[in-house]
Amino acid sequence: GDFTHGGILSREASGLDGILWAPLLHAGWSHLFSNTVPVLIFSFLAMAAGIGRFAVVTAIIWVVSGLGVWLVGPANAYTVGASGLAFGWLAYLLVRGLFHRSLAQIAVAVVLLGIWSGMLWGLLPGNPGISWQGHLFGALAGILAAWLTSRGERVKSPKAEPTTPGNLGM
Prior knowledge:
CATH superfamily: Rhomboid-like
Main location: membrane
Number of domains: 1
Membrane topology: Multi-pass membrane protein
Low-confidence stretches: none
Number of strands: 2
CATH class: Mainly Alpha
Order of helices and strands: EHHHEHHH
Shape: globular
Pfam family, one: Rhomboid
GO biological process, one term: proteolysis
Distance between the termini: 76 Å
CATH architecture: Up-down Bundle
Number of helices: 6
Radius of gyration: 19 Å
GO molecular function, one term: serine-type endopeptidase activity
C-alpha cells in the first residue's frame, strides 16, 4: 500500500498530524533501506549520552524538522521518511562537542565528518523527490538540540586571577 498519505502535507492543517508519522513512513523499500544505516549509526551514537538525553534530542529533532517541512515543503505533496532524524542526529553529533567543550566529542565529530561528509550535499535543493527541507530542518533541529541540552553542562574556561600592579601572578 501507499503509506505516503500519512506524511506531512505542507501548509495544510490536515497535514500537521503527519509530523508525528512521517519519520516512520517511507515511500518504498529502497527509501526505507537508504535511511536505515544512517539512522542506526547516528541514533546509537546519540544514545551513548544516555536514554533520557537521547529522548529529548530526538523529540526536538522530530518536531522541529517536521514543522520546518510543514512550513516550507512542497505544496500538494506528502513528505515521509526518517532522513530528517538522520540529518538531525548527525548535526547534533557534529556540534555537541563544541557546545560541551569536549575534545572526545569533537574527535567523534571529526571522524563522522570524514565518513559522512557527502550527506551534507543533501541539505541543498537539487534532487527531485528528495526533501531537502527535511534534511535542512533536521540538521538545524540537531544543532538546536545540541545547544539546548548542553546549556547546563558547558565546561567553564578556567578564569585567570586578575593581576594588579603589586601582584604579577607570582
